[in-house]
Amino acid sequence: MTDPSGFSWLSKAFHKVGNWLKKNWRTVLAIAVAVVAWYVAPYIIAGFYGAAGIVTTPAVFQGAAGALAGAMAGAANAAISGGDMGDILRGALVGGIQGGISGGVLHQMQSGASTFADRAAHVAGHGILGGAANEAMGGKFQDGFLSAAAGAGAG
Fold first, then answer.
1. Of 11, 19, 110, 154, which sits most exposed with the smallest number of CB within 10 A?
2. Residues 106/62, Cβ–Cβ less than 8 Å
């Protein structure tokens, strides 16, 4: 019941995973950076607000944390993709704007979405924001719109 060559279904699976990671390491790293940014940004903003003695509303706090997380993820994604300093700054700017609007305005819309019209406005807002961000980064508005709207609709 053993394979004398040492190869089994498990080693084949590890080989396939390794090959997939070689092809997709940038995407995996970009996702990991975005997750870390999403997690640490609120702590950074809370520390800044606390040190500066700023008292704010939850919407402003969430918008600031979203902007920071978006900027961190956008800059890192551009760098991981091999972008130059201009690409990295554009990624930070677009990510920061998108994260700030998503974290502040659209997050508040979601928490108050009690009717179908409220929910539709929330999904459309994410779609428009995603389309504009995709266009700003050189992609198609429609692709960004559909992706962001689908994500907001599923959440």
1. 154
2. no
Q: How far is C-alpha 83 from the geometric centre of its chain's CA atoms?
A: 18
- pLDDT given for residue 113 in this prediction: 63
* pLDDT at residue 10 greater than cutoff 80: no
Q: Structural domain boundaries of the chain?
A: 12-154
CA atoms within 13 A on the CB side of 77: 23
Model pLDDT for residues 76-117, shown as the tens digit of each residue:
989 998 999 999 999 999 989 988 888 888 877 776 667 788
Q: Look up the pTM and report it.
A: 0.71
Tens of pLDDT along 37-78? Answer: 989 999 999 998 888 888 888 888 888 998 999 999 999 989
Compute the distance between CA of residue 112 and CA of residue 92 in angstroms, rounded to an integer.
29
Write phi, then psi, for 101 (nearest 5 degrees): -70, -45
Compute the distance between CA of residue 106 and CA of residue 123 in angstroms, rounded to an integer: 9
Q: Which residues contact 155 (CB under 8 A, 6 or more apart)?
A: 110
Contact 110, 122 (CB under 8 A): yes
